[in-house]
Write a structure and sequence with these properties.
The chain is globular, with a radius of gyration of 25 Å. Helices cover 32% and strands 8% of the residues. The chain has 21 helices and 18 strands. The longest helix has 25 residues, at 141-165. It has helices at 34-37, 41-52, 92-97, 116-129, 141-165, 193-208, 225-240, 248-254, 274-287, 324-333, 374-379, 433-438, 514-526, 543-556, 564-568, 570-584, 591-597, 601-606, 618-622, 631-634, 649-654; strands at residues 77-78, 82-83, 88-89, 107-108, 111-112, 344-348, 370-371, 412-415, 418-420, 439-441, 444-446, 459-461, 485-487, 509-513, 532-534, 537-539, 610-611, 626-627. By secondary structure, it is mainly alpha-helical.
């Protein structure tokens, strides 16, 4: 008889699902009699929760994450691994881009790019459950149907994780493999990328048929119909993109990636435009659910007037009637609760607050080890939507790094909870609302309203050498802000990490939200050159439909929509989409996957990363962007193998028929 060890945990009431699907604390594991699993709904739920507990942590965007995260792309840099007094704090993206990952060293404390074994453990647990659900005596027919859907969602999600990190995988269907067999038992081959995408999407779609359309407060994080279909939309867009769809990027990075048994390419080398239509259909299916809309907050007395070129019609036809800053900011800071956010399709509260210690400034309870490069800062537009290099007289961009008069004259209230302090360097004035919601620059106000320690509240934080959060404050750790910028996106005005009564507001990490669906739909349509039929519906490069989807995101940010000239040219609109996603999804674990699928990772890495000169004093060159000289940036490199994480040596030894991913050791 197979055994599963039971972990004894406090039990409070009978639960039929975890209160947070990705953050369970009540589960069976390893040596409890397998036939006992199906004796009751309680037992089978706990066994299911044990499978959920194997999943990587989605809410980690900086350190100890099982994805490259923010530092795995150009949207953030770190000082590298440091000791926090208890443990080594590692940034997986920095480990990857400084070439410290190998097929024998894929992770560290509580993080691992090698999600393969744990995700297959999830799959095995689900495959153990599925044939026996009808045997559970105290589950009614409806509960069994919904539970079966949750199981299929979980299995699809485990496969999804493998696809994102390791790429093509072994599809085992409903089989339950022995875990103690000899290597010849495991002679299975990886399926192609497209076969994997088709299978995962079919499983998500099957799960969606019987999942609830929404979950109550106490079941937040449990999967829904929308979550399943939204992940299908994400995968279909990824599969249509240049890296995976026979474009030059697919040929450059995967031209020699073939299955040794039959020579089949794991990644298609033949372009198929119809994949874009399938992606458009998948996104539209989520839109047609009519369950989601962009998060907005009504305008109030603090809301600034819209620039003249921004449509003033009521949102979503224009930007009228909303406060763009609060509409964007408050779904990340925790001001808007997750269950009241109509944009959140799926999310988790796990680990989000913990991750903010690396963005809080030195001496204010943080270590300041996450920094944002200048190119990201420069991507944020002026208030009227113009590029900083084409700024208007009404919203000028002023950048004179040695001129001490190049500062704002007085405080400016930009929204109810945001003040641009007087004395701010003018390059940070007149910018779009998402800039202020996302970026903490030198001279920003950190309110920290929850602490009663007056010396900690309402601090103007500066990053030049000699300032209150500059390199001079680092001490022996030598950990400090490297660029003069960090991310304040997940910081509520009340958040404080030090001082008496310091508290932080609970946040939700958006695994996927409706803005992504809108931008994915616009991107997919843009890449069509002819009409395609998908599920009885026609899809073509419909500029009106592209504009309707894209402009909602722009209007919510208080910006003008795409111009007719931008919409008319596919290459121009692709560049517009790429820039919009970079800004809109800053530090949401999307950038690495985007620059990979577009095939532009290598191109971006050719250009040195710059930031403010944090080695200098304030008016002695601090505001003059310079190439970042810190060790982790000097060692930064690009290698084509970064497109996929390696299969660990242990997996290759256990299943000798496995082909290693390109560029990694065999």
């Amino acid at each position: 008889m197979k055994k599963i060890r039971i972990i004894s945990l406090a039990f409070i009431g009978f639960l039929t699902a975890s209160c947070n699907f990705l953050n369970v604390d009540d589960y069976f594991e390893d040596t409890f009699s397998e036939d006992k699993i199906f004796e009751s709904q309680y037992n089978i739920e706990r066994y299911f929760n044990g499978a959920v507990n194997e999943l990587p942590k989605e809410g980690r965007m900086y350190y100890w994450c099982s994805v490259p995260g923010a530092t795995g792309s150009d949207e953030a840099v770190s000082c590298g691994t440091f000791y926090n007094g208890i443990l080594d704090v590692s940034f997986p993206g920095t480990e990857l881009t400084t070439d410290k990952i190998s097929y024998t060293a894929t992770g560290g404390w509580d993080w691992d790019f090698n999600v393969w074994p744990k995700c297959y453990k999830v799959i095995r647990k689900v495959n153990t459950i599925l044939p026996h659900i009808d045997e559970v005596p105290d589950m009614n027919a409806f509960d069994k149907m919904e539970f079966r859907a949750r199981c299929r969602f979980l299995r699809a999600y485990a496969y999804y994780w493998i696809l994102q990190n390791q790429g093509p995988m072994i599809l085992v269907g409903d089989q339950v493999f022995d875990t103690n067999a000899t290597p010849d038992y495991y002679q299975r081959e990886r399926s192609t990328y497209d076969e994997c995408v088709d299978y995962i999407c079919s499983e998500f779609e099957a799960a969606a048929e019987n999942l609830e359309t929404e979950q109550p407060l106490d079941l937040f994080g449990s999967p829904t119909k929308g979550a399943a279909l939204a992940l299908v939309a994400r995968l279909r867009l990824q599969a249509a993109s240049p890296l995976y769809n026979g474009g030059s990027a697919a040929r450059r990075y995967f031209g020699d990636f073939t299955r040794k048994s039959d020579g089949v390419h794991y990644i298609s080398q033949t372009y198929d435009e119809r994949k874009w239509a399938v992606a458009a259909a998948a996104a539209k299916r989520v839109m047609d659910l009519n369950l989601y809309r962009l998060h907005t907050v009504e305008a109030d007395e603090y809301t600034l007037p819209l620039p003249a070129n921004v449509p003033s019609a009521a949102f979503p036809a224009g930007a009228g009637g909303i406060d763009p800053f609060r509409s964007y900011s408050e779904m990340f800071t925790g001001e808007t609760t997750n269950v009241t956010n109509p944009e959140l399709i799926w999310g988790t509260t796990e680990n989000v607050n913990d991750q903010q210690d690396v963005i809080f400034p030195l001496k204010l309870g943080g270590n300041g080890s996450i920094s944002i490069p200048q190119r990201i800062i420069d991507a944020y537009r002026m208030a009227d939507g113009r590029d900083i290099h084409e700024a208007s007289a009404e919203y000028p961009y002023e950048d004179r790094p040695y001129d001490q008069t190049c500062v704002t004259a007085s405080d400016q209230q930009l929204s109810k909870n945001y003040i641009l302090p007087g004395g701010t360097y003018k390059a940070y004035a007149n910018r779009e609302p998402r800039f202020y919601a996302s970026i903490a620059f030198s001279g920003s106000l950190w309110q920290m309203e929850s602490t009663t320690s007056e010396d900690m509240r309402n601090q103007i934080v500066e990053y030049y050498n000699g300032a209150n959060a500059g390199k001079n404050q680092a001490g022996v750790t030598n950990v400090y802000n490297l660029t003069g910028y960090t991310c304040r996106k997940y910081v509520h005005p009340r958040d404080a990490r030090t001082g008496s009564n310091a508290r932080t507001v609970e946040k939700t990490f958006p695994i996927i939200r409706y803005a992504e669906i809108l931008l994915s739909y616009a991107e997919a349509l843009n890449n069509l050159t002819t009409t395609h039929e998908v599920n009885g519906e026609s899809f073509s490069r419909d500029q009106a439909a592209m504009a309707e989807a894209f402009n909602q995101v722009r209007y919510r940010a208080g910006l003008p929509g795409a111009s007719q000239e931008e919409l008319a040219d596919a290459d121009t609109f692709n560049e517009l989409i790429q820039r919009e996603r970079m800004v809109e999804f800053l530090h949401e674990n999307r950038r690495y996957y985007d620059i990979c699928r577009w095939g532009i990772f290598e191109e971006l890495e050719r250009e040195p990363l710059t930031g403010l000169n944090v080695e200098a004093a304030e008016w002695e060159g601090f505001y003059a962007p310079t190439i970042i000289s810190y060790r982790t940036i000097r060692e930064r490199t690009f290698k084509s193998k970064y497109m996929l994480m390696p299969l660990h040596r242990d997996e290759l030894r256990k299943v000798p028929s496995l082909d290693q991913n390109p560029g990694w050791e065999k």
